[in-house]
Amino acid sequence: MAGYGGPLVAFAYTSGARNYPATLTYTITQNKPITLTAPDGTVLKENYMANYSCNNQVEDEETAKFESVIVKDGINYQFYNAGADVDKLVVWFHGNGEGDLLGSGNNVAQILANRGGVAWASEEFQNILGRAHVMAFQAPDTWYYAQRDNLLDKAAAEIKEVVEKYHVNPDKVLVSGCSAGGYMTSRMLIAHPELFKVAIINCPAYDVASDRGGETPTDEELTAIKNSNIPIWLVQGATDSSVATDKCSKRLFNILTQGVPVIQTTVRQDLWQNSDFTTSETADGKYKLSLYDTTEDNKLRFAEDYDQDGIMTEVQYSNHWSWIYSLKNDPRAIDGTHIINWAAELLNQ
User: Fold this and answer.
1) Residues 30 and 152 in one domain
2) Residue 214 DSSP SS3
3) Model pLDDT, residue 56
4) Are 199 and 189 in contact (CB under 8 A)?
5) Average pLDDT for residues 327-335, to the nearest whole number?
6) Predicted TM-score of the model (pTM)
7) Would residue 57 count as lying in a domain?
8) In the list 130, 139, 279, 343, which could disulfide-bond 99, CB 3.0-4.6 Å?
């Protein structure tokens, strides 16, 4: 028997509901001899037992695009440099599960444990956006402490630094976030609306904020977002057992559209595709809300190559994980425009 044992940096989901860097000890074992053959079927060696070695490094093309930026007395972030002469910026706020824990300063969970950062840096999204830098913050603990720990002003200052350093057009900054990050995105729109051109907000955790160290936004604060005149697309499950849809995305959408006619369309997805959804929007397209249907078991449906065999199958996840749809560019407006394409059109005006 041949084998190798050694440490591997990975993520563990802690009792504190966080994806936290942990050390795995693993062993590669060959249980029985194998026969080595050439591509034409010629037997090269029988009863072969291998000797295994490992350099203990994991290479990931998606995360390798990012640079880890550590900010003393600030908020650490991962940065994707889209290249010279790029004048657009995407700011991403992760969910609560990717926040730092116990002051580790790991600054990796927001990339490795949530596809929010890497999705924006993917070739698909970059082609749609016409290239954009990506700035993915990591909460020092949780975004619910945004006001208590002055995270809003710290994030704003760092965004301004990136805008200046990389010659970003201040009118071409998109902000997005999910769950606790949707809460943080909303708080940034309330505190610093001048920084952003357009926003995509996924299942914003308003209703639980007060119980978790934050402050549930008041109607006056959400009205301030409307007064900022920033186009916003909201996405959530029609039912969400983690943060109540009526008290979160629907609440903000109702405030944004108060007194304005709203039109609706329902998109039916084929078998083995994503959940059906209904998009509501104002006639001018400034405000949109896509709500995804849940199954009889109160789950969301996703089309994925789950077995990595090239075949798409249906997978069901928590009714809270609606941000996956946005990161797949699945939500559509009544005219058929997808959510990332909608944002790109606004950034490129």
Assistant:
1) no
2) coil
3) 63
4) yes
5) 96
6) 0.89
7) no
8) 139
